[in-house]
Amino acid sequence: MLVSQVPALKEYWYPVAYSADVVQVPRPARVLGEDYVIWRGREGAVGAAVDECPHRGSRLSQGWIENGDLVCGYHGWAFAPSGACTRIPQNDPEAPIPPRARTLSVLVEERYGLVWICPGMPREGIPALPEADDPQFVLIHEIMEVWRASAPRVIDNALDVSHLSWTHRNTIGDSANPRMNNLKVERDGQRLRSRVSYVSRLTAEQRENTGLTGDFTTRVTNSELVQPFVFRDVMEYENGLRHVLFKTATPVDDTHTLFCQFIARNDNPDEAKKAGIVALDRKIQSEDKELLEQIRPEFPLEMQTEMHTRTDRMTVEYRRILAELASEGSLVPPDHAWSRPFVDAARAAAKAATSPREQG
Ligand code: FES
Ligand SMILES: [Fe+2]
Q1: CATH class of 3-118
Q2: Confidence class for position 357, pLDDT limits 50, 70, 90
Q3: Mutation test residue for ligand 1: of 50, 52, 53, 97, the one with most atoms within 8 Å of CB
């Protein structure tokens, strides 16, 4: 499936920018293939609307803010964050403004230092992320960037603890220790939780970041699918440190994702320590990005399309959850529409390898 084939995905909240970056300058944001404009208007309120002026369709993100209202650069109509038009410069000032002269507003809210929008009627609120609001933890923003990868592939990677020993063998993984201990997976509606322990590498950077000593530690990871494109992971270290990782994947379109990562820590790190933590987490994510950007954006929903092992139970459940969402009036064609050429080529290669004489 591709994200554009699942209408239900419009009914969730997605982060589109850091709150601090939404100032009195309109900025574009793209979610599920639609263009939006976001801006900070009167009394600091954030507005969000389809990026199209109701007059002649100009891009509102090309305009500017004046007296707290969003001004369209084409003929100067102005709009409040509610969407209401507050000025049509070419009309007499006394003439009433037609009620239809409105931007197509979308729901917008600020939470965890991020601006979130919901393109449709929300079926759930902005996800509750307990440690991001907890005064015992420090919230640190780490990454907000567009990846050339699809949103389900990005979250699939987050839910997949077993890649850690391999993909991250040069940072926190140990490819000599790929086994997951006591993997437990639970599903609760559209939420997934897993708990697992494994050997994690302690490089000099990681020793600095965690306060642990030695070359390896046993780390416990409590992963959670909070919403289809929102992930939370409470990592427990032996010394009581909790490193809580939040990842969101805003589907920009079928092939691009606005990846956002922030963490909460219970060790009140100073600025130098924070910089070290962020640097290592960015390095780890770049290892994922390099692989994810080369994986096809279509996400398989049929269990037979890929192969699965015992440690893939979390990501198998993720496919089931997305398949259920996709079945709600979606237009998803069967996987074989895109996987057939790949499967045929693999079968032909296997056949050629087992019957060399037939090749003559
Ligand atoms: S197109 Fe926006 S004011 Fe005319
Ligand atoms: Fe990873």
Answers
A1: mainly beta
A2: low
A3: 53
